[in-house]
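ingest -> fold -> write
write: protein_1
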Amino acid sequence: MSTTPPSRRTVLRLGAAALTAAGVALLGVGAAIQPKRVLRPPPRPDDATLPEKAPSAARVVVVGGGLAGMAAATALAERGYAVTLLEAASHLGG
């Protein structure tokens, strides 16, 4: 007689129930159901450190043609910087 093993979902549900029960038994009901407070840094305004216009003849090199490199190169070019984008691969995009 063969039995099928429990699904991953069943194992996770049972594990969560066991951890919750252990928290209730050790710390009391209030401590087991209180969410943790997550501290995050305050939001920064976009482009806080970039000037609106580039100084004359300002040149910038962006290393990496992935998504972040292309976004940085575009933002700098829109502000008037002469941008050189360097990428090791034969294509852009990561």
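write: protein_2
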Amino acid sequence: MLSQGRLHEKASQRFDVPALKAIARSFAREAALKVAVDGLRGIAGAGGMSEPEVAAFEGALGMPAILAAQAGLLSDMDFIADALYDRVPKAARAAA
């Protein structure tokens, strides 16, 4: 339903669809990064992997894509803060 621009009837109405999308993107970025880094840390920390093997493992985990997906994080966080605290977005303040 969210992809159709509306919420389920039982969903909380605190946030509108754009805010929920920003929250979801922010959480997805954080989850992907945490899983990949923690997994890499555990495997590398166990020892027994050479530097080339660690680099290959990073590639297999998709670290370049995960890091690239972090783009837009700060603007999403600003947008989420605007929604949380009922702040006027910066663009609207500049126009006023």
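write: annotation protein_2
The two ends are 34 Å apart (CA to CA).
Helices lie at 17-45, 51-61, 63-68, 73-84, 90-95.
pipeline exit 0
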